[in-house]
Amino acid sequence: MTSRKLFSTFCNKRLSVNGLNKRSVGCYSTSSAERQYIPRRTVMYVPGHDLKKLRKIPQLNTDCAVLECEDGVALSKKAEARVNICQILEEIDFGPIDCAVRVNSVSSGLIEEDLKIILSAKKLPQTVLIPKVDNIDELNYFTDIMKREINRRKETNYRPYLITFIESGQAVMNMVDIIKTGLRFSEEGVYLLDGVVFGSDDFCADIGATRTSEAGELIYARQKIVMTAKAFRLQAIDMVSIDIKDQESLERQSLEGARMGYTGKQIIHPSQIDTVNTAFTPSHDKVEWATQLLDAFNTHHQSGQGAFTFRGSMIDMPLVLQARNILQLVKNIQRKQ
Amino acid sequence: MTSRKLFSTFCNKRLSVNGLNKRSVGCYSTSSAERQYIPRRTVMYVPGHDLKKLRKIPQLNTDCAVLECEDGVALSKKAEARVNICQILEEIDFGPIDCAVRVNSVSSGLIEEDLKIILSAKKLPQTVLIPKVDNIDELNYFTDIMKREINRRKETNYRPYLITFIESGQAVMNMVDIIKTGLRFSEEGVYLLDGVVFGSDDFCADIGATRTSEAGELIYARQKIVMTAKAFRLQAIDMVSIDIKDQESLERQSLEGARMGYTGKQIIHPSQIDTVNTAFTPSHDKVEWATQLLDAFNTHHQSGQGAFTFRGSMIDMPLVLQARNILQLVKNIQRKQ
Amino acid sequence: MTSRKLFSTFCNKRLSVNGLNKRSVGCYSTSSAERQYIPRRTVMYVPGHDLKKLRKIPQLNTDCAVLECEDGVALSKKAEARVNICQILEEIDFGPIDCAVRVNSVSSGLIEEDLKIILSAKKLPQTVLIPKVDNIDELNYFTDIMKREINRRKETNYRPYLITFIESGQAVMNMVDIIKTGLRFSEEGVYLLDGVVFGSDDFCADIGATRTSEAGELIYARQKIVMTAKAFRLQAIDMVSIDIKDQESLERQSLEGARMGYTGKQIIHPSQIDTVNTAFTPSHDKVEWATQLLDAFNTHHQSGQGAFTFRGSMIDMPLVLQARNILQLVKNIQRKQ
């Protein structure tokens, strides 16, 4: 077997992604394969009914800002939140911040109205978050409305990133099916499934567990979710640390989540941003490794050699892509400073 | 969408249950939906061959007393145990205690004889426990015998609660299928699948693990079992603490199990009852929360408003049912004092 | 039911295996059922390109020696490694050591060449290890080449033990299907699937996790893998301890793995052998239990009594087989001393 053929074998192997991710070639059209990696180390909720807080988003150092329609907004304020969000989408320059909207769940009965109004805004969010997806039926229902509302607009090239929430025992059980369905719709071009969030508090309520700061009661769900998300090359966003004042616990949980493979964490207060960003930023060693590996890869690739060893290990495409994502993440971080 | 329509959306959503449980409307006939929640914080085994111990059951403060045919009874005493159990079922007034019988496993070859004799007793147990269910075939086999033996009686309205045991690697792997099969038979009216027990010691023997007091080697199975049981709105009964003298370890394990979402625990000695009951009793705060939530729900429901917020969160039906179960459990506990 | 019939019920029940293992009667042909249990407490990699190290294998106290083609061998040395391995297979008397070869993964594009050359050696390895099996397709691909290369030889009764590696999120997800496929090919007689290895470092790289010495980030995968392997009565080989100098950590990890149900551990240096062998050797108490249980079993079996109680527990066939495996393992260990 020639080394060229060997290399093509590597390239056809599904693409791994590590703490960072990108989907397999062939899984998506060229256009999506070319889409940049969107860092979401920090995913911060900002209540949609609170215009003052919404307007402060550009000053925040969060990677992703979530314009919130769901749990952070009382039922009596849902209508107000939707209107505010449309206004803010038009008014604010989010710059390097990933602009996301979290709609209400399918089971709430509010999601159709959410999508109708938000997808009629002049500017649209880069990312849509859908909470409490327990099974395929709910994702199908959401996707149907998405398609309809996107088609209603004149421009038809809108295709947001999609992030789904796993927040119940059924959702953990059905997670593989939910992801596969989401990836199928992504291939069709409706959206681009890009990540999964572990909604630990609703999960605990659902199965009757009690959350502790150590989160020992969540090991099974937390590790199954990150493994499954990463197995499909999706981002994995870890649970919220609720006690805003406890920075020590926040740091411990963040580092722990990063070690498990999570790429980011939900936050609910600006005071949590820096600690979490730091925990999910690749270390200096990792960046150096990525830089040198890509240099070696480029050299070998130009000479047509294909597979190669680096620091004593044989390098395959997953590692090359990991390295690329690390450098892309670092570049995006620097762009913000 | 009107609030009335919204409310109906909530009601049709599957019913969540927390530390406590009740199945979805539609899943069972009206009659079963009306069945009371049976607390089983403590599930205590009493060997069927020991008439003296059996007669002491009414003095025990256990939620559930198990008249035991299986592991607690030597092979040479099986016949005696069956006869004793029939006698005790007739003789004793169990009062508020859930009266259960644990038959032998399908693979023991003893289960048919167990069911023949026990289901011919004058009074029948409220609950049947079937150990070592490794796959659907075993549950089908058991259910066929149940049907036949129940039909043999004149009164045909006997329909016990059923609790199955997960005690092997295969059982953990097949758990979802086993539960779905049990729920299907429940819809048919043979029994009412009401809970799952984690048989940790047989599980360890099956996979060659060694049990420690900390139970670190059991995290995967223990948390998968509770999550899956709760995802189907079943009770989840945690592993036995074997060392009867170690009250500290018993308390730690009980609290840990309750935090994971277990609703009760198996016990093997009266000295374990109080500690375990306490660990699985809802806290004062939780009872207060449930009382106030149900008050708010009733107010909104009467005014036709449907969905509502309570203490800052939007309330859905799962939370309403959780609250109901908490109060029902507390009521049952008080009934016994 | 007569005790004879009862006993036959026991015997038809799938055979359990504990820390040690043997597959169910009926699962394999008589010949395979008669195959001895091969202890693999220590599974040590020896790089195929290093003739000097290969020649030292007979002096090692490892249970299994792996002639390594994969990660331990640079791309430029693969050809040399294959030739060396063929030479060593012929040259060395492995004595009581299980002689294994680890080929490259299917996705490397190197496996066909590996198998062609190694399966043309004069003497063949007792065991073949295939790394990075992520799905059924890869196992099918490997098996096709195995069949073809084995058929090419004149003697056709070669049937190695097969051990597969679980080293990615997809592999953990697909593990049950992979094992079932491997068992089907085992029934056909191509090989005898005998164990599963947890490749923790590639797994971490795959899902973007970071390995720590405590391995808290691996609980889900590590425990799911051992449970699933044991549920199918396969050996389970635990992760490598990378830090060769840290004997304390090695011992802790070994004892922990043994408690979880693993039957052995991968090692990368002779200094790790003794610690790991000790951790995975049955204790004196366990050996005594096994000896007495088998004595009791033989007595009852000869008298035609079938099922029986021993030390207060009813004994079923799984326990009998566990006892047998323990004694067989001990016998094999003694043979080496």
Automatic annotation (TrEMBL), chains A, B, C:
Protein residues bound to Mg(2+): E167, D202
InterPro entries assigned: Aldolase/citrate-lyase_domain (IPR005000), Citramalyl-CoA_lyase (IPR040186), Citrate_lyase_beta/mcl1/mcl2 (IPR011206), Pyrv/PenolPyrv_kinase-like_dom (IPR015813), Pyrv_kinase-like_dom_sf (IPR040442)
Binding residues for substrate: R102, E167
Cofactor(s) of this protein: Mg(2+)
Domain HpcH/HpaI aldolase/citrate lyase: 41-270
UniProt-annotated location(s): Mitochondrion
Reactions catalysed: (3S)-citramalyl-CoA = pyruvate + acetyl-CoA; glyoxylate + acetyl-CoA + H2O = (S)-malate + CoA + H(+); propanoyl-CoA + glyoxylate + H2O = 3-methylmalate + CoA + H(+)
Alphabetically ordered keywords of this record: Acetylation, Hydrolase, Lyase, Magnesium, Metal-binding, Mitochondrion, Transferase, Transit peptide
Gene3D superfamilies the UniProt entry points to: Phosphoenolpyruvate-binding domains
Record EC number: 2.3.3.9, 3.1.2.30, 4.1.3.25
Subunit structure: Homotrimer.
The protein's role, per its UniProt record: Mitochondrial citramalyl-CoA lyase indirectly involved in the vitamin B12 metabolism. Converts citramalyl-CoA into acetyl-CoA and pyruvate in the C5-dicarboxylate catabolism pathway. The C5-dicarboxylate catabolism pathway is required to detoxify itaconate, a vitamin B12-poisoning metabolite. Also acts as a malate synthase in vitro, converting glyoxylate and acetyl-CoA to malate. Also displays malyl-CoA thioesterase activity. Also acts as a beta-methylmalate synthase in vitro, by mediating conversion of glyoxylate and propionyl-CoA to beta-methylmalate.
Family affiliation: Belongs to the HpcH/HpaI aldolase family. Citrate lyase beta subunit-like subfamily.
The protein, known as: Citramalyl-CoA lyase, mitochondrial
